[in-house]
Amino acid sequence: MVLLLTSALTALLFTSFVSASPARVEKRDPYPKYRIAPKVFIFSMFDPEAEIWWGIPEFDILGRNVTVPGFSPLFPDAHCTANGDICQLVTGESEINAAVTIASLVASAQFDLTSTYFLIGGIAGVNPEVATVASVTFARYAVQVALQYEFDTREIPDNFTTGYIPQGSTRPDQYPQSIYGTEVFEVNDALRKIAVGFARTATLNDSAEAVAYRANYNTSDGLYAAGAEPPSVVECDVATSDVYYSGKLLGEAFSNYTKLVTNGTGVYCTTAQEDNATLEAMLRAHAAGLVDFSRIIIMRTASDMDRPYPGEAATTNLFWANQGAFTPAIQNIYLAGVKVVEGILGAWGTTFEQGINATNYVGDIFGTIGGTPDFGPGAIFEDDQASLSRRGVGRRSVKRGTQMKGRRGYVYHLGQ
Ligand SMILES: *[C@@H]1O[C@H](CO)[C@@H](O)[C@H](O)[C@H]1NC(C)=O
Ligand SMILES: *[C@@H]1O[C@H](CO)[C@@H](O)[C@H](O)[C@H]1NC(C)=O
Ligand SMILES: *[C@@H]1O[C@H](CO)[C@@H](O)[C@H](O)[C@H]1NC(C)=O
Ligand SMILES: *[C@@H]1O[C@H](CO)[C@@H](O)[C@H](O)[C@H]1NC(C)=O
Ligand SMILES: *[C@@H]1O[C@H](CO)[C@@H](O)[C@H](O)[C@H]1NC(C)=O
Ligand SMILES: *[C@@H]1O[C@H](CO)[C@@H](O)[C@H](O)[C@H]1NC(C)=O
Ligand SMILES: *[C@@H]1O[C@H](CO)[C@@H](O)[C@H](O)[C@H]1NC(C)=O
Ligand SMILES: *[C@@H]1O[C@H](CO)[C@@H](O)[C@H](O)[C@H]1NC(C)=O
């Protein structure tokens, strides 16, 4: 009894000693021994894009749910197949939701994402000069088109073609002089071409209403010939903007800006609200050694035209017209996307596990993860020849001649 009491007392004393001593606070292993290492991670942005993957015959992505701190309160869980090979998350819509959700994913100790392929699969507005509603597009460039100065159209100078002016510049057609780093991202073009090949094996969905709406773009000048064609799989680039715009002039202005910031290579064809934010989070994760930025596929299916057909009001195109393409665009995320997922899993050991070597520059406008950007003023870091595979880069020295701007952003001295 005494012995018992004594040991109970000892235990009590020991316990209080333990809890009073910061040195003895129990440490939890931040890296659990079993982490999920998906081969493909699907990024959806809102419910319909996510739910089209549920209940499909190919795999059960609701086999296992993982709550991830930092995810949207509307979409708190990642969903995975029981074996963890395929996972999905829902970012929530627009740039802030996308950036925070993806930053939370890559910081989560529940996943090992170092070999994972990422399939961004969402709907988007489409530029009828390049593609049409219900088409499936794969981007090489993602451009943050609204990261610019803006004047209301009633206050722009007579000789400006648009109220959007690149930051740090004084004319719409001048390369941005003040750069934040998220203006342009470029992904692995060799991987994109493989994904396009997989997607082209799909039979795309369409609707009678979409067929009818498209026909309005078949004008005699042929400006929107691509918009009048039946849906297909297209290689063209995505714009990111929190502002959901509609109209010929904004479409053309952002098309011009895409061409400008990608030094003539980018072809603006789809518009959505998340991709650059997602890519910035992924880029930082690559720099920290957590993901491989060259394993990202940006697939956007076209749910609506970004501008009216000739004679139609921009407001009618956005608010009232029955374009009929929302449902086919959602369907086509699955129909084309599942071919990409199956293609990657089917050739995992032979091809995809080791990675698809990029032949183009991959990364951001700063050259953050190495290499020399083929757009913009050039890498800002001293070691801009660093190989893409060298991940886990630490603090970097910024090149001389790159000065911080007095206000916001970097000022580049172009040509220096
Ligand atoms: C995972 O979440 C989904 C949607 O919330 C639910 O339908 C499904 O049953 C969950 N799966 C498991 C294994 O609990
Ligand atoms: C957004 O990302 C796309 C795709 O990588 C890139 O082409 C685009 O320039 C980026 N835009 C901005 C403003 O960050
Ligand atoms: C517009 O006109 C002003 C004043 O003549 C000139 O300084 C400016 O460069 C012009 N801008 C463009 C985009 O042509
Ligand atoms: C598109 O999908 C809908 C809904 O599943 C289906 O009823 C329709 O027949 C499909 N149309 C085409 C052209 O595939
Ligand atoms: C566009 O209209 C012309 C003339 O009516 C027609 O010959 C052509 O087939 C139409 N194109 C498409 C893609 O529907
Ligand atoms: C786009 O650029 C072209 C060629 O420079 C120019 O003619 C057109 O006015 C621009 N469009 C807008 C809306 O800025
Ligand atoms: C990809 O690049 C790595 C490193 O340069 C090289 O070892 C590998 O053989 C390349 N893979 C292919 C399939 O070309
Ligand atoms: C892109 O265009 C800008 C402005 O014309 C130029 O200063 C820069 O050197 C170009 N970058 C590349 C990689 O060609």
From TrEMBL:
<keyword id="KW-0732">Signal</keyword>
<dbReference type="GO" id="GO:0005783">
    <property type="term" value="C:endoplasmic reticulum"/>
</dbReference>
<feature type="signal peptide">
    <location>
        <begin position="1"/>
        <end position="20"/>
    </location>
</feature>
<protein>
    <submittedName>
        <fullName>NUP-domain-containing protein</fullName>
    </submittedName>
</protein>
<dbReference type="GO" id="GO:0055085">
    <property type="term" value="P:transmembrane transport"/>
</dbReference>
<dbReference type="InterPro" id="IPR009486">
    <property type="entry name" value="Pur_nuclsid_perm"/>
</dbReference>
<dbReference type="Pfam" id="PF06516">
    <property type="entry name" value="NUP"/>
</dbReference>
